[in-house]
């Protein structure tokens, strides 16, 4: 086969965009463990899940068998506003590094919310609207998910209540205003608007909030308000499914040019972008059709994969959500202030956890200052100002490319560039001023988190 000249950016035609999401669970021999009801320790039934999530999403959450799930036309129309996203050959970075490796990245930051989260936000909002619901509630930490959801809800004319961790609400006023521009209500959490919020405020006056607490408030409002459901931006099987649009597009573009990646890298917070990017490639590996090396990258300050345990644990700090089997640091684990807000989650997608446990994937942890060095290096040659979260993947992609420089191997490296970092300039400032610190939790710090993992026969 004659080699095709690879353009700097590969854009698919609209007609080549995926018409179905790919459900990697269908090809897994060991399926991800089901969510458990914390009161009975029995698998959550569709009825129980239906109190929190809308019906179609409950189906998707529980579907371990259907390989392809059609993307409704209305969602595909919305995707066309910002997709297909480009697959970029990082020629400039390759040149700068003087590496024989070929580096590609799939760029998901080309929309106002600035990240891949919009891929699932529009799907979740669509099914809520389709069911005739009035609105949805959610939490947001750094703000990317809340912004994505507010864009989706504005488009579909669905009401949306966002609980934003109080310290982000105060530190990131511009994120908040973007959300309000799209018409959602943003409440700093903990708040007086919920029972759990009032309880937390009474116990800890002056607290700056946490993601776990904001989740508990959003779930309370959803379950106590007629016509509302709760939506979550990562971790869940349904979210990973929606994010497979990233991987399917990438694979289509690569197949078109006869490119086969050797190494696929992504940052991992709750696992949705990484899971979405690798899904179709992982499917080939699971079916024995091809082999790839997959690497999850996480912050050393919140090392769920590399130092966590594989057990059933709560998804939220308030311990109101179901138990998920995953690599976890314990729902009470509070990571140090690492600036990559989107990667500060104590757990990990059950799908990725199972794949990692079964040896299909590797994981690495990296420290914050080296991540920002990589971010800056990348920005200076490729132009895009990357989000701190995404820069974790950049760091490991550069490491792999430098290894190729030593060995002379011409590997093809693919990584997910999940978003842009315009709202993270405070973190960049700290880095530039030399005030950024690395923090690695001690074994004792981790033990405190592990102690909070529920104990029952077969767990821990
Ligand atoms: C939320 C976020 C992440 C991490 O979430 P995943 O579910 O692990 O993908 C990564 N990058 C950006 C830009 C984000 O906003």
TrEMBL record:
It holds the Pfam family PALP. Its cofactor is pyridoxal 5'-phosphate. Gene3D superfamilies: 3.40.50.1100. It comes from the Bacteria. Its EC number is 4.2.1.20. It is an enzyme of class 4 (lyase). It catalyses: (1S,2R)-1-C-(indol-3-yl)glycerol 3-phosphate + L-serine = D-glyceraldehyde 3-phosphate + L-tryptophan + H2O. Pathway: Amino-acid biosynthesis; L-tryptophan biosynthesis; L-tryptophan from chorismate: step 5/5. Residues 82-419 form the Tryptophan synthase beta chain-like PALP domain. InterPro entries: Trp_synth_b-like, Trp_synth_beta/beta-like, TrpB-like_PALP, TrpB-like_PALP_sf. Tetramer of two alpha and two beta chains. The beta subunit is responsible for the synthesis of L-tryptophan from indole and L-serine. Belongs to the TrpB family. NCBIfam families: PRK12391.1, trpB_rel. This is tryptophan synthase. It comes from Ruminococcus turbiniformis.
């Amino acid at each position: 086969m004659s080699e095709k000249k690879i353009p700097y950016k590969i854009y698919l035609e609209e007609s080549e965009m995926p018409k179905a999401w790919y459900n990697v669970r269908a090809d897994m021999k060991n399926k991800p463990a089901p969510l458990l009801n914390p009161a009975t320790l029995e698998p959550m039934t569709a009825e129980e899940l239906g109190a929190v999530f809308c019906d179609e999403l409950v189906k998707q959450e529980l579907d371990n068998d259907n390989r392809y799930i059609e993307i409704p036309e209305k969602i595909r129309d919305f995707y066309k506003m910002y997709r297909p996203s480009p697959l970029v050959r990082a020629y400039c970075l390759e040149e700068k590094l003087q590496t024989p490796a070929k580096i590609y990245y799939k760029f998901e930051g080309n929309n106002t919310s600035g990240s891949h989260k919009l891929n699932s936000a529009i799907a979740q909002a669509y099914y809520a609207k389709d069911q005739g619901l009035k609105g949805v509630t959610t939490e947001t930490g750094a703000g990317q998910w809340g912004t994505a959801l507010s864009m989706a809800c504005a488009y579909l004319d669905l009401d949306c209540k966002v609980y934003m961790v109080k310290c982000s609400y105060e530190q990131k006023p511009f994120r908040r205003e973007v959300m309000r521009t799209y018409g959602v209500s943003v409440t700093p959490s903990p708040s007086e608007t919920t029972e759990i919020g009032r309880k937390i405020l009474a116990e800890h006056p002056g607290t700056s909030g946490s993601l776990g607490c904001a989740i508990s408030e959003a779930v309370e409002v959803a379950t106590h308000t007629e016509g509302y459901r709760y939506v979550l931006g990562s971790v869940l099987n349904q979210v990973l499914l929606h994010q497979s649009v990233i991987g399917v597009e990438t694979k289509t573009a690569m197949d078109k040019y006869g490119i086969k990646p050797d190494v696929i890298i992504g940052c991992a917070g709750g696992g949705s972008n990484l899971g979405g990017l690798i899904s179709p490639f992982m499917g080939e590996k699971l079916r024995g059709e091809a082999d790839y090396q997959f690497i999850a990258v996480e912050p050393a300050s919140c090392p769920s994969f590399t130092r966590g345990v594989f057990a059933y644990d709560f998804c939220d700090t308030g311990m109101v959500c179901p138990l998920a089997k995953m690599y976890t640091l314990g729902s009470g684990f509070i990571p140090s202030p690492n600036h990559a807000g989107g990667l500060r989650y104590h757990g990990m997608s059950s799908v990725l956890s199972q794949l990692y446990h079964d040896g299909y994937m590797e994981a690495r942890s990296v420290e914050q200052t080296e991540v920002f060095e990589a971010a800056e290096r990348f920005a200076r040659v490729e132009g895009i100002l990357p989000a701190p979260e995404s820069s974790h993947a950049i760091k490991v992609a550069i490491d792999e490319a430098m290894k190729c420089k030593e060995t002379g191997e011409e590997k093809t490296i693919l990584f997910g560039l999940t978003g842009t970092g315009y709202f993270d300039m405070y973190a960049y400032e700290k880095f530039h001023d030399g005030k950024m610190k690395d923090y690695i939790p001690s074994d004792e710090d981790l033990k405190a988190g592990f102690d909070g993992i529920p104990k029952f026969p077969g767990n821990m």
